[in-house]
Amino acid sequence: MSQENTIIDTNSKGGSMADFVFDESLIEWTVPKADWLRIHDKHFDGIGTSAFVFDAQNRVLLVQRAAHDSMPNLWEAPGGAVDAGDVSILHGCARELREEVGLVTRRMKRLVTEGKGGEKWSVFTNRTGTKIICGFGFEVEVEEGAQVVLDENEHQAWVWAGEEEVREERMRDGKGIALTGMMMRSKLLEAFRLRREAGESV
């Protein structure tokens, strides 16, 4: 079993958050974004994260983007930009998860890429195409019993979706869950594959 480490999380607004642990495989992302870019000699304009949260039925949390935002009404995993004030990239992921859906991170479990053997990061542009962003995905375990509470400025609905529902972009009741793009779809399906490989799926 991989060693885990405890990290104290504070957000860029000055408030404190609960401690969380992280798997030793994620040590690379325990530094601020500026340090990560310098260490890896990368010149991206920003770093973003996605948090893949699963429930006891092996369903992943998806949120629907607000109708007034970019990519309106499409579905994605919670996430967003890592801020300069975030203690580390993992902290940024935990902060965005709490801000977007009200869930408190307890464990950063593993990196989620776009597929087996792929790069650790994804690359995409901002909505205007003027900035190049580096994106990381992490499977995250959250505080038990917590309820999803959306930031309505960013998202308008949420669901727990199974692997086939993600693959088909449609819930069992026929409701469509069109995703933000192939990058998100690939990471979601890879998150399911990694859980299956680790014997964690039900």
UniProtKB/TrEMBL annotation:
It comes from Trichoderma asperellum (strain ATCC 204424 / CBS 433.97 / NBRC 101777). Residues 44-184 form the Nudix hydrolase domain. InterPro entries: NUDIX_hydrolase-like_dom_sf, NUDIX_hydrolase_dom. CDD domains: NUDIX_Hydrolase. This is Nudix hydrolase domain-containing protein.
